[in-house]
Amino acid sequence: MRELRLLSIIFACVIGPGCEAGDSEPSTAVEGTAEPDNMASSTDRNAEQEEADSASNRLSNGPFEDGLDEREALPEVARDDSGQELNEADEQNFQDDGTQAEPTDVIPREDWGFTLCNEVETRGFSVGDIMGPLDFKSCNGDKFSTEDLCGASVTWIYIVHAWCGECRKLSELMEGIAADYKEAGVATVQLLVHSYSHQLPNADDCTAWAEEFALEDTIMLFDPLVKNIMLQESQQTGLSVFLDGNQRIIAKEHFYDEESVRARIDELLNAERRTP
Fold first, then answer.
1. Is there a contact between 249 and 125 (Cβ–Cβ < 8 Å)?
2. What's the helix, strand, coil split of the chain in %, to 5?
3. What is the tens place of the pLDDT at every residue in 21-65?
4. Residue 199 and residue 260 in one domain
């Protein structure tokens, strides 16, 4: 009789609501069988772990290699040069610690600056919008706002990943473009958003990039807090953002050749000349 009693309990635990807390018999769960709630929680934990592992793998491979959207690939937690987590409250205090190489970034022209920005009620980050202010860092660790470029006839912001081959090709040509359009008041900006190791960049990464490509007339910046995400709209790296003299976003394009960039800048300069 006791054996029949045990069998009936096992049967109830497997297909029924399970053994109640008040049962006098000991637990008799069958190996390999789990309660429905336990199975669900286990499945959730496995799914979360798989998602975390997948994100980690995609980050190490890089969005340029596997087509991953940059907004998913970049780490959520920004860190300073020592590896400490950096949040929005720390941003104003994030400065160079004195160990960085000498800065090679370019100071904006004296006839540019935030006082020349047009006062508008609505700003945005889509094509057609007057671009809202975005704060990045110069290679010496100082804060640099896009409003510091107000007054430029045209602004070209080239968002680069250090490990992106196509980004490097255009970066080799960028200083020549900047020099040719300097007298026309064109602001040429390189914004480094990813280091060679697929991490958020620091001041050392910025300086090394500027020195590698001998950037002098190009304004060199880096983005330790992923602010560039406001401008991103696709899965591609190497985004070029073109602004007119009012800092209106005229185009977002993925150019990897010099001729296309020059054609866009010339078009914007001609439009500025026609504007009364």
1. yes
2. 40, 15, 45
3. 444 444 444 444 444 445 445 555 565 556 545 444 444 444 444
4. yes
